Fold this protein.
Amino acid sequence: MSQTTTNTSSHAMSLRDLVQKPWIWAYLAAAAAFGATMIISGGQGAGSLFYAALTFAAFSAIVGVGQMFVITLGPGNVDLSIPASMTLAATLALKFMDSNPSLIVPGLLVAIGVGIGCGLFNFALILLLRIPPIIATLSSSFLFQSLAIWSNRGIRVKPPEPLADFTTGGVFFLPNVALVAIFIAIVAWVVLERAIVGRWVLSIGQNLRAAQLSGVPVNLVRFGVYVTSAVLAGITGFLLANFSGGANLNMGTEYMLMSIAVVVIGGSSIAGGNSNVPGIWGAALFMFLIVSMLNSYGLGAGVRLILTGLIIVTVVAFASKKGYAA
Amino acid sequence: MTREHLRILLPVLSLAILLAAVFYLQPRAMSYFGLNLLFNLAIPVALATIAQMMIIMVNDIDLSIGTFVSFCACVTATLVQDTPVLGYAVLLAAVLVYAGIGAVIHLRGLPAIVVTLGTSFVWGGLAILVLPSPGGASPEWLQSLMKSKPPLVPMAIIAATLIGVLTHLLIKRSSIGVVLQGVGGNERALERAGWSIVQLKALAYGLAGLFGVLAGMALVGLTTSADANIALRYTLLSIAGVILGGGEFTGGRVSPIGAVLGALTLTLAASFLSFLRLSPDWQIGAQGAILILVLAIRLLVTRREAN
């Protein structure tokens, strides 16, 4: 960790440092996928592809940040309720706003509130009932999903006009949702690398017992992490629903795998205790660009899925060092 | 031994209570036909849960079992039906690939969660290639087996009992089963004792693949057709079933009979609501609630045991 924070030496040195960063591979892979798409299109549409990549990567990046904090806590810590929290927050927030532009801020607060509620519920199961986090978040996701189905009733509420414009719009070459996601990533980076809380999260992931003995408020930190993950899922659900013109019950489905994939491909350890934020953005871009690359090669959905899977496994096989298992 | 018994007591009780509640609400369910209807769809879930149990037994977790069962169902409904030799060869190859995945995970020290997450894309893609749109047909023998009506006891109950007892004998009573549990318990000790962990992990994954194939075939036998997304929910259901049945994520502590009971309980939980005349919106939620409830009771029981 220390070499990532102090880096003021010569140019050659910084290049070597850069290569040693665990997250660099995600960016290289994303760039390769971008390049391969451009070869097919002959350089056409580079700008719009970049714009689309930033937009869709933004959603993966926000849930990825939440999942990263959870995974950092150590083996067995995964939040499987992210898709359900996203769907529930989006459904309730859109229903609350009812396409009314004056309720945008309260609507966002509803989404965040739902996120806090989901996180509290998850952590209550983990702490009070001592259910392993995977099972706790899994069973609560069943409940959240049912709540969303029940409150949605198949009605598709349109997002308020200004909010739909905001989530689909952008400033210069940057989509607004990407700006939000970059801001969240920067905050997360500061918390993880510069704040005492981040050190606590890492220390719990490295050695729970040692962290406890050295006075880290373990349960408070875990509480904060699970609530953060659910809140970020709520915000993502809110943005995604407004972006795509309404909440729907399957909107979160792909983000269960996605949130885990971007953390691990981004170079964070699945065993916890060693995470980085920049990699999440790199991996999120990569996950979008790989699909659009396979699309531009004219491959069908089946082949595309197979290649996506093989690439994930290959990247993980190469990026991981032997010696840890989950 | 009493600990083992205690471990199995809770899943038995939770299923019994749920079943009693269903019978109380709808006495007509207490019949040959009613029981078959209640538990018919539990057979593929139970097989998938056993597959997941094999993986959890060696301290890993399989996020691809749902797409794998879907893939096997698609192969059964198309290739096995049209060109049986090729179809069975593909299913056999799928089992071997599963074993291979287990070996690679161990050899390279990879996190199983992420690898199976990647392979879940692969199985999903293969399923779409095999069967691009919902359809296919069930092989004749499979359909007549799954829908057969043996005297006295419904097929669903016989199948569930068979699956439970056979895997119990395999895992708890055979020497290789005990060694496999040991992989989850203390891998290093087994390695020192001269066992090859790579082979054992490959065996556990291969068994998971085998039960995944059986789950896919059973599913097609019941539904008589397939589609690429037919069993996606099995991934989460199977994990929940293993834990509900008294299994734990670490230490190789699993119970095959418990896992089958867990799968039956989860299936019953979903249909329980219709007996309460509650909206089907809450079906998934009921499974979650029952899972939480049983785990809460388990906590109380184990705490008392510790005192």
Chain A is about 75% helix and 0% strand. Chain A has a mean pLDDT of 87. Chain A has one domain: 24-33+47-325. The first helix of chain A runs from residue 2 to 5.
